[in-house]
Amino acid sequence: YLSKRNGRLLLAEVDGRLVGTVLLLQRTQNNFEIAKLCVERAYRKCGVGRRLLALCETEAKLCGARFLSLETNSRLESARKLYEANGFVSQPVEKAHFRRVD
Length: 102
Hints:
102 residues, alpha+beta, four-stranded mixed beta sheet
């Protein structure tokens, strides 16, 4: 899956324990998408999600990205707050890549 989309799986560790993951997918030559960001419940609100987002931005820039996007569900309020606090802006969904996106 990742190799077909020139994707990267990025991981967050604390004291050798995996606590977070995120996918960075290349949609076009200069358009990347953040997908499936997940942080273990006990490590939420500790900056892990912010650091994973920052790592995605850095990786995307190094690969020549001009655009970086993500899709989410309106019921995921804490995720939406994280994304908005990191500069992402809500847009109407035209054609979602994942079924639960609204």
